[in-house]
Amino acid sequence: xxxxxxxxxxxxxxxxxxxxxxxxxxxxxxxxxxxxxxxxxxxxxxxxxxxxxxxxxxxxxxxxxxxxxxxxxxxxxxxxxxxxxxxxxxxxxxxxxxxxxxxxxxxxxxxxxxxxxxxxxxxxxxxxxxxxxxxxxxxxxxxxxxxxxxxxxxxxxxxxxxxxxxxxxxxxxxxxxxxxxxxxxxxxxxxxxxxxxxxxxxxxxxxxxxxxxxxxxxxxxxxxxxxxxxxxxxxxxxxxxxxxxxxxxxxxxxxxxxxxxxxxxxxxxxxxxxxxxxxxxxxxxxxxxxxxxxxxxxxxxxxxxxxxxxxxxxxxxxxxxxxxxxxxxxxxxxxxxxxxxxxxxxxxxxxxxxxxxxxxxxxxxxxxxxxxxxxxxxxxxxxxxxxxxxxxxxxxxxxxxxxxxxxxxxxxxxxxxxxxxxxxxxxxxxx
Length: 431
Fold this sequence. Notes:
Blueprint: H1 2-17, H2 22-38, H3 40-55, H4 62-75, H5 78-90, H6 96-112, H7 115-133, H8 137-148, H9 158-167, H10 171-177, H11 179-199, H12 213-218, H13 224-239, H14 244-261, H15 267-301, H16 303-314, H17 318-333, H18 338-355, H19 360-374, H20 382-391, H21 395-418, H22 421-429
Helix pairs in contact: 1-2, 2-3, 2-15, 3-15, 4-14, 4-15, 5-6, 6-7, 6-8, 6-11, 7-8, 7-20, 8-20, 8-21, 9-18, 9-19, 10-22, 11-21, 13-14, 15-18, 16-18, 17-18, 17-19, 18-19, 19-21
């Protein structure tokens, strides 16, 4: 069985290398592996039931609802208001548009849950202003790409939802656990921007005059619905008034009401938002459904149990195992998006790490933070290509400017590993 497992896992990575979509690569590898391990009868049984039952899980319904909430608010043009309000308050600082993009990115995280969506929105809203003011194109786009990754750490993060579904960890606890690491990450980005500009002032233009207090306060009028929605989601999860499965639907409905009653959504915008949300959700659900086939193959062959037994018998220190898993996640992140990395690695690595005594909620933050780094590193760096396609700045220029931010990300990851309390403190308060 071990030989079959190793050959099938190798076949899976071969399919990924020749650019077979992740969902279908896992389906094909799983089908081949199950047939080799058990023959046609178990294969037919798995193919008939596993994909359907995997996505019929009630808790998965929260995922498309969070996607829909973000699409409604994007269609309502609230992303533009977030950036405008941030720029009014921070635009007078050296590099102020970048800091305002960071502030807007923090708020965007609460309404998108998707790193690529946040990066695209920030690129379309902030880059034209940066180009007009004279910011270095590569540096500006690199900052936008890294700021977009906040959306997969701060709640409601789709990556944390996927992790919670696959590992049967409380999504509410994961959301609360992401708050402090998300804030630490945002502070780290601000420090990176500050030191990069200080080292090379030519990357950012001189400051602009400070606007009046009245003008800055007026800019906050357009973002109160977002703040209200953020408070609603956090309060609902923290108080237990509704479940984490239900909060996605409540958030989407509240976002729809906000857009309609403020006159920001007509029939055309509604159809566009629902179409985009459907396409995004189908893509994620297809990956989840087909991953069930490969997951059952791993169970049939006892691969996970064999790996755990091997680590126990070899007496490999737990920190070394964790370091190897993090390295694996980083390398996979060079080529795949965060959903694919989580789906591929969780069936094998999560049982191994929890068996070694690591807290599942803390592991969720470490997994997502590591995937976050992969979003901006070559050769895949999906956020880099999203920003490049939006701004028309060559990816090579953005990749050259991204490395100081990647260094800061690795430092933050190390801090989160060394101090688990940063991730577990807020969920502990909710008990």
